[in-house]
Amino acid sequence: MQERDKQRPAMGKRDIILLVCIFYLLGIVTAIGIYLFWLGKTEAQAEEPELYSELYVADVYIRGDRTEEESKLSKEQNYQLWEVTTVLRSALYQYVKQTNKFPKDLSLLERPFPYNYLSAIPQEPLTFSKVVADTYTGSGGWVYQPVTYALEKTNEPMLKQMIQDILYPNIELGQVKFPDFDPLKIIVNKGKNELWLVSGKIVLQKYPVGLGKNGKTPEGSFQIEEKMMNPNGAFTPVKNNPYGNRALVFAPSFAIHGTNNPESIGNNVSKGCIRMNNHEIAELYAKVPLYTMVEVKEDGPWAESLVRPLYKGSSNSENTFNQINRPKEENYGVFYNWSG
């Protein structure tokens, strides 16, 4: 009887050695592939900038074909866009908090004293346009789409989100993604003789200040009640004016103002007011809206460790924010006698 199945020949010693070699080579190739994949992923992660980790933009990942200078300019431009947008949104926020309604157009933010939330609507810094449109076109400037319904039941998070949604740069959608909107706030650190302009935990600027002698600068939470250019200008020229060229009044007898004595900055010599260099108060004044919160403390846990600089370069404020003198923001003929 013939066998239906032929028996397969047994594997020889050469066959076993060949199989071992094949599996060994496959293991080496697999290991090399895994290593190359891991290396590529690590390098991609290393390209993500540290300072800008909270502000994601199209150019935030530094590509290999871009120079260091090009990447720096990209970060500067995007920081400027975030800063200007935050200033404008903060003015709108303060207007709504005071009036319980959205303005029909943004020009209501730049009215004469005492309703001067801002000196001027800032230009959008990428296209240098100040045009305000009611629909998105991507052509530069701003988009403002006010709502008309009652705001009595709108809570704080809802209001911030609404402002973020209805006021934004009129540039290519998806080009930038900002941190969640937080209105501007002034923090005065008496222990360091510093004034910080912040949005949430992001520091926009730090300024040295002169404070009250023997702790006379009041501590607590206040808000900017009045903004004016050239206080007492009808009586004293700026170069001789102890209040300098700008004033932000935060209490009946106290203001953040300029000075004709720059040597006093960094010292505690006033009767309670907060003094700044004239060029720096002009910059602060141009950014800070009416009714901005002012917090004055000796020292506290909110100091350096909790506040993260977003960008360490120059914000080019003089070209971005209007700092020229405007007679309509002077309270001409009224004599002020703050606590110096």
Automatic annotation (TrEMBL):
Keywords: Cell shape, Cell wall biogenesis/degradation, Glycosyltransferase, Hydrolase, Membrane, Peptidoglycan synthesis, Transferase, Transmembrane, Transmembrane helix. Pathway: Cell wall biogenesis; peptidoglycan biosynthesis. InterPro entries: LD-transpeptidase (IPR050979), LD_TPept_cat_dom (IPR005490), Transpep_catalytic_dom (IPR038063). The chain crosses the membrane at residues 16-38. Residues 184-297 form the L,D-TPase catalytic domain. SUPFAM superfamilies: L,D-transpeptidase catalytic domain-like (SSF141523). GO terms for molecular function: glycosyltransferase activity; peptidoglycan L,D-transpeptidase activity. One of its GO terms (biological process) is cell wall organization. PROSITE patterns: LD_TPASE. PANTHER family: L,D-TRANSPEPTIDASE (PTHR30582), L,D-TRANSPEPTIDASE ERFK_SRFK-RELATED (PTHR30582:SF24). This is L,D-transpeptidase-like protein. It comes from Bacillus oleivorans. The lineage of its organism: Bacteria, Bacillati, Bacillota, Bacilli, Bacillales.
